[in-house]
Specification:
alpha/beta, 5-stranded mixed sheet, 2 domains, 7-stranded mixed sheet, 14 strands, globular, 18% strand, Rossmann fold
């Protein structure tokens, strides 16, 4: 079994998908000759040619608009938005066109496009290169929203997304590209080659969208996390000594409600963590689901640990980032309530 970082796993997923299906095309800003700003598409243009891997103008609404048309006429476009922060000009195309196409055409047309975008902070990208806008898309009917936390999942989920007949927003936490990150920025980076989830099969495989994974079993409290926060959650559990169960949601929409409910009914407590801003973040939806479905099992209020309601700061990166210390305090509050 090969060892891959997340960049290599994503590239491998696209490569295999293109090899299996000639209708898969890849485009976006600098994804062709340059191979993408993070090199996730490096070498694909040389292998498949400029008709299937090509650069697009700096026009996000145009990129997604073209992808919708391609999908309606039989192609399976994989479009890259260079940073999630740049997706806002394309919001109308995604929400009003891609998400509605199957419904408004009574099933005559579908929109089988995958929109990849690096998200999150931890790289000193400041306010315009660090955002996590996932909750904007989980609010939209007709769009699936995915955020893997490791190379193994990234490959399987991306291959499933590309084969899906509906639009999929595929977020890639860029702080995880080269290794798991537990929030301790002052420690050496651990590469994926030293982590079990860096073992990625060479052959094609898919991970079903809408299925969460239990990363750490526990009995005292459930932590709901996704993306980079999965490793922060594991670190907080270890450092506090609390027997926490860590659930990696993997897919935010559709949400694996059953796994969440089963865990919270077992532990009686729940802490939600995400990097995005707090107000109207996806954590609010998770807290509401838990409260509605597990109210009689809860021993304490649901806690939320998130980014602050402010633009992602450059100089105060780690004051914004919800690290293991802040998450550990929430775990303690949940246990003492």
């Amino acid at each position: 079994m090969a060892r891959m970082n997340m960049i290599e796993a994503i590239r491998n997923a696209i490569d295999l998908s293109m090899d299996q299906d000639d209708n898969v095309v890849v485009f976006g800003e600098d994804v062709g000759f340059f191979g993408g700003v993070f090199r996730c598409t490096e070498g694909l243009q040389a292998k498949y040619g400029k008709n299937r891997v090509f650069d697009a103008p700096i026009n996000e609404s145009g990129i997604i608009g073209a992808a919708i048309g391609m999908g309606a006429y039989g192609l399976r476009p994989v479009a890259e938005i260079q940073f999630a922060d740049y997706v806002y000009p394309a919001i109308d195309q995604i929400t009003s066109e891609a998400a509605r196409l199957r419904y408004r055409s009574n099933g005559d047309f579908t929109s089988p496009l995958t929109i990849r975008m690096p998200c999150g902070g931890g790289i000193f990208g400041g306010q315009t290169h660090s955002q996590s806008p996932e909750s904007l898309f989980t609010h939209v009917c007709g769009v699936k929203t995915v955020m893997p936390s490791n190379p193994y999942d990234a490959k399987g989920l991306l291959m499933a997304a590309i084969e899906d007949d509906d639009p999929v927003i595929f977020f890639e936490p860029k702080r995880l590209y080269n290794g798991p990150f537990d929030g301790h920025h002052d420690r050496p980076v651990v590469p994926w080659s030293k982590h079990e989830l860096g073992e990625v099969p060479d052959e094609a495989y898919k991970i079903e969208l809408g299925k969460a994974a239990i990363r750490r079993e526990g009995s005292e409290v459930t932590i709901l996390a996704y993306g980079t926060m999965v490793f922060v959650a594991e670190a907080a559990a270890e450092e506090t000594g609390i027997d926490a169960e860590v659930i990696d949601l993997r897919t935010l929409l559709p949400l694996d409600v059953d796994t969440i409910v089963d865990s919270v009914k077992k532990t009686g407590r729940c802490v939600v963590v995400h990097e995005a801003t707090r107000t109207s973040g996806f954590g609010a939806e998770l807290a509401a689901e838990v409260q509605e479905r597990c109210f009689h099992y809860l021993e304490a209020p649901v806690e939320r640990v998130t980014g602050w309601d402010t633009p992602y700061p450059h100089a105060q990166e780690w004051e914004y980032f919800p690290g293991p210390a802040r998450l550990g305090e929430a775990l303690q509050r949940a246990m003492e309530a």
